Every structure is written in C-alpha cells, then in structure tokens.
Automatic annotation (TrEMBL):
Superkingdom of origin: Bacteria
InterPro entries associated with the record: Gfo/Idh/MocA-like_OxRdtase_N, Gfo/Idh/MocA_oxidrdct_glycsds, GFO_IDH_MocA-like_dom, NAD(P)-bd_dom_sf
Keyword Oxidoreductase recorded: yes
Domain Gfo/Idh/MocA-like oxidoreductase N-terminal: from-to ranges: 2-120
Protein name: Gfo/Idh/MocA family oxidoreductase
SUPFAM superfamilies xref list: Glyceraldehyde-3-phosphate dehydrogenase-like, C-terminal domain (SSF55347), NAD(P)-binding Rossmann-fold domains (SSF51735)
Entry keyword S-adenosyl-L-methionine: no
Span of domain GFO/IDH/MocA-like oxidoreductase: 135-272
PANTHER family: BCDNA.GH03377 (PTHR43818)
Amino acid sequence: MKFYIIGAGVIARSHAEAIRKLPNFDEIEMKVADPNPQALSGFVERYPDVVTFSDARTMLAEEAKKDDIVVICTPPFTHYELSRMALESGRHVLCEKPLAMNRQEADDLLECARRKNRLLGCCSDRFIGLPKTEEIKRLVQSDAIGDIYKVTFTYRGQRSRAGVEYQPESRWFLDRSKSGGGVVMDWGPYDFAILNDVFKPSSIDIAAAWVSKPQTQADPVNTTYDVEGHAGAMMKYHLDGKTIWVHYERASCTHGKPYHLVEIEGTRGALEWSPYFESDKVICRTDKDGEVVINEKDINNKSDIGVMDHPIYYFYHKVKGEPSPALINEQTVFNFSCLQALYECADTGMLQTVTVGGIQSNPVMK
Ligand SMILES: NC(=O)c1ccc[n+]([C@@H]2O[C@H](COP(=O)([O-])OP(=O)(O)OC[C@H]3O[C@@H](n4cnc5c(N)ncnc54)[C@H](O)[C@@H]3O)[C@@H](O)[C@H]2O)c1
C-alpha cells in the first residue's frame, strides 16, 4: 500500500506521524511531493525513508494500486486541482480542510470521486469520534435532556489568527484568494463536522450570518490580508421531523472577552462539553424537585491514536472497508457547503438552505 503526500509543510509532518502508527506500517511506502526544496529537505530529515518529488504529477505518474491514498497537505487554493489530479490517477484522496475554495470545486470533486469509484475524504473529521463527544451523542439520542431546542457553539479567541499569531510564516492564510477565507475556513470545517456528526441534520437553514475583520496594531502590512477573524450565524437544524436552533460563533481575533461555550439545551436538561482541547468533562444539568442537579464526568481519550492522527487513521480504515467515522463523499461536501452558505448568507442577507443536493437561497424561512 502506498501513501502519496502532496505538500511537505507543517501538517504533512503530522500525517507522516499518523501513517507510522498504522497497523501494517512495515508494508506501507510513503512518497512526498513539494516544489519547495527547503520543505522537502526538512521533511526528509525527519523521515529519511520517504521518496521525494518536486512535482506531484510526476509522483502520481506510476500505476495506481487498489488501496493507494493521496493526502493533500497544501494551501486551499491548490486543493481542487491536486485532489482532482489524484482522483483521476485512480487513487483515493484525503484532502486537508477546507475541502475546496467554493461549492463548485467541491461538487466537481464529488462527481470525479463517484466516476472513478474512489473515496474523497476531508481532514475536517480530526475532532470527531472522541469519547467525550461520543458520550454527548449517546445522551442526545437517549432523550436524557428532553426535547432539544437550542445549541450554542461559541469559540472566541482574542489573538489566534492563522498567519499572524499562529504560524506567521504561512501568510497565505490571510489571503482570501489562497485560503478561501479566514476563521470560517480554518476552524469552521471542524465545528460543522462536530455539529453535523452529533445531530445528523437532513438540512440546515442559515437564517442570519455575519463576518468581520477586527484590527490590531500588529496586523501584518505589505501582504494581502483580506480574511475575517470573527464570524457568527443563527441556524436552524432540521432532523427527524424536529428543528433545533444553533447559535454559532467563531473568533480568532476579537476585542471582546475570550471564552468558549458548547451547550445543548433541552426541555428537561442541558449538556456542556468541549469538543476540542480545553477539557474532557461532560456536564449534564438536570432538575430534581425544582433544584438544579449537576452531573460531571471526565471522559478522556485513552487511545494511542490522538486527534492529529484521526484523519489518516479513519480514512485508512474506510478505504480498507472497515468501520470508521471518516467523513467522505456526500457528507464531506454537505459539511463544506455549510461554510459556503454562511458566507453567502452574510454577503447577501438571504436565508440559505443546505441539503445534500446543494444550497438554495430563500427570502423566507420554512
Ligand atoms: N498548520 C496546521 O496546524 C494545520 C492544521 C490542520 C490543517 N491544516 C491545513 O493543512 C493545509 C496545509 O497547511 P500547512 O500549515 O501545512 O501549510 P504550510 O504553508 O506549512 O505548507 C504547505 C506546503 O505546500 C506546498 N505546496 C504548495 N503548492 C504545492 C503544490 N502544487 N504541490 C506540492 N506542494 C505544494 C508548499 O511549498 C508548502 O511546503 C491547509 O489546508 C491547512 O488549512 C494545517
């Protein structure tokens, strides 16, 4: 089995580590392509057995084998061309988030994956499948908190912009024509992967949305910087004949208070947890005789497979036909469409409805 990595930057190293943890690593061959000689040599210093190429097309020219996987680890503006080339070469593709720059590209990739009978995966599944979130799913399905009517998904960082405070050497994060957008394209893929995995909506209405670019005195100059650092949306999730309001907010830059809150409120109780790094607590608040009852459980991930290993681990098992929560094909395009619909709603002020079939603009809500 072969893994072909395209792009030898920061995230490629974490995928290489994940590949080394796969059950049959001894039988896996790894190849990597990057036109930047410094990136390649840095990669090879860490992984001397990897075969290197300066050009991805040359790397993929050899005949494809049944389970070959190409991992796209480049900036978003290259995802479409490279993923398409890799699918056309007859290989499964696991693409870094965001899947593409826009809906058209995502749809084309899905069409190509179907035509070639290959899997199209996205690394936006990095944080799904954690034991604490699986416990939340169990509680949501068990009716433990009654009828769920509202979800709050808020993550507000004050100075955590990719390309400024985080990984300042990768300025492409700040240029919309290269990144596709700011914090919505950077963290939104994970946020929507989690929300959509917990609630499994058949459609989502984005009723209102906004994006903004707060300024700081450390904003980079002499470089294109046109992406948002703060965004939010009010959405209606439709599932199993029920509707749930979801209040979403994400900031990598705000002058307001930094905090996070992920909470699911039902008629008989509420659940709170952190789907990311902050805590492994699952907090359930209910009522007994008119008094608030708080039940807290610590649910750690005891597996050797960490969140940074998830995309490779999940996709590998999916390709092998084994049970896996990997986000692939229609689901991954649906999740990506939520990001596009948020931008579209913020831009036009029109309600956007996301379904598996696409996005519709509507003047009124159903
Ligand atoms: N850095 C992170 O912590 C992180 C985490 C999760 C996901 N990601 C995602 O991973 C992707 C890459 O991010 P990164 O931080 O590794 O970027 P990076 O800037 O560190 O590396 C990108 C690499 O891609 C190479 N590249 C560009 N065009 C190429 C092409 N046509 N063929 C081959 N190589 C090419 C560049 O030379 C560079 O070495 C992005 O989509 C990002 O959102 C990054």
